[in-house]
Amino acid sequence: MKLSDRLSNLFRVDRGVHKALAAFLLCFSIVGFFVVTLSFLSAGGQLIVGIAGIIAFFIINRRKDDTATLYLKILSLAVSFRYLAWRMIDTLVFQTTFQAILGIILLSAEAYAFMMLLLIYFQTVHPLERKPAPLPDNSDQWPSVDVYIPTYNEDLSIVRVTALACAPWTGHQIS
User: Fold this and answer.
1) Tell me: the pLDDT tens digits for 21-39?
2) d(CA 89, CA 118)
3) What pLDDT, on a 0 to 100 scale, did the predictor assign at position 37?
4) Which end of the chain has less Cβ packing within 10 Å, N or C?
């Protein structure tokens, strides 16, 4: 299902209203994202944003569809971006060369983790739904399968159970 279909199913309005509402929500979400992640908040403001985020996670997580997963990913990115902004603005102090080296290493590691999160979310935002190819009726034409069972000083009784459990996938022959 496409993202536009998910949005239209979420709001269930006609196309003209849907486009205007989607544009408004997109602009509002972008502005809200940057206000929440980049603004300097007091301890009370951070508490309010934190509690609102936790409540939003729980409310959205009640739905078990792809749209909810997409919203949870966006909320996760906002929280991660907020954390990176806090880390760069409030905690990194470069007064000595040693502090600068350690701070840059820490920031590099956290930036790497954030980039990995972005890439993983990008890969899983719209997964392909492939159906398995049917096997031929003649089992002689099936592809062969090699099953490797790595062991080291295992009891033969443990290895035997594992090897026999693999028998259906090896084509009736165990070697």
Assistant:
1) 666 766 677 777 666 666 6
2) 21
3) 63
4) C
Q: Which residue has the tokens 């954030």?
A: 114
Residue 21's pLDDT is 63
Predicted TM-score of the model (pTM): 0.57
Closest C-alpha among 76, 152, 150 to residue 114: 76
Residue 30 near residue 22, CB atoms below 8 Å: no
Q: Comparing C-alpha atoms, which of 159, 158, 156, 157 is closest to residue 147?
A: 159
Find tokens 């997109």 and name the residue.
Answer: 26
Exposure string of 53-80, with b = 16+ CB inside 10 Å and e = fewer, is beeeeeebeeeeebbbbbbbbebebbbb
Taking residue 163's Cβ as centre, other Cβ atoms within 10 Å add up to 15
**DSSP one-letter string for the chain:** --HHHHHHHHH---HHHHHHHHHHHHHHHHHHHHHHHHS---HHHHHHHHHHHHHHHHHHHTS-SHHHHHHHHHHHHHHHHHHHHHIIIII---SSHHHHHHHHHHHHHHHHHHHHHHHHHHHHSS---PPPPPPPSSGGGSPP-------SS--HHHHHHHHHHTGGGTTS---
